[in-house]
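stuck on this:

***
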Amino acid sequence: MLEPKILKDIESAFRQFGYEAEDVFNAIAYIYSNIFSIKASEKLSGVLEKGKLISDIVFQDDCFKKNN
């Protein structure tokens, strides 16, 4: 399990851009699919495409990078 501070930092990074719930799920699914090299079905590929867009926005932010 992740430390509470790490979870708060992740939540803050997404909320900074107004992302919650399904958007966060999509981004996390995208990240996990890359880490574990998961091949996407047609249904999952839509989720991963949305997740990539959100991840690119959230994790390119200089403020987030400085906090890590």
Summary: The two ends are 19 Å apart (CA to CA). The chain has a mean pLDDT of 82. The chain is about 75% helix and 0% strand.
